[in-house]
Amino acid sequence: MSSPKKAPAQKPSDNRRKLLDAAREIMTAKGYAETGTEEIVARAGVTRGALYYQFADKQDLFLALCRELAEALGLRVFEETMARITNDREDLAVGLEMMLDAFLEPDIQRLLLRDGPAVLGFDTWKGLVEPVNRVLVEHALQHLLDDGTLAPQPLEPIAVVMSGAMIQAGQAIASSPDPKAAREAYGQALSTMVAGIMSGSAAASAK
What we know:
By secondary structure, the protein is mostly helical. It has helices at residues 14-30, 37-44, 48-54, 58-84, 91-102, 106-120, 122-146, 156-175, 179-206. Pfam families: TetR_C_41, TetR_N.
């Protein structure tokens, strides 16, 4: 009986890093469909065997790349937001602006927002991007709840709605012929949503 096929290695390595960096550069410029594994390994300076040792195939490489992009984006938005705010009440509004600005970046647009759902399937892709948004939104909402800006209430439903709206805005910005104009339009819409949540909670608290 033949032995089972060895799973791709998951441990960090120089080759893995080189492949991810090469794929990010080429796929950002050309898109997933137009990028071949031969081009990736040539840019990375490794063999095809090294690619298939680290990843099952091109889609597996792309999945790892999108996961890395989503996690790095969430951390960056959090750190930049914390560096800019002067009090915790600004967290949600400032974080929203930071995320919308990130949606204008070429690699985020092409890989995470446009190719991501098409290549990985909506459910897999959503599983990568939604948790990032929800964690950031829930963190900001908790600050508003703690200082009394939000009336006591479950935060999960608001976070789900807000994170879903942010994802939809990101896809609309990425697919727009004028991403900067779309960023402004969706930014205004999301800011109105935030203002409504805060004013509605304040009114409820006053009753």
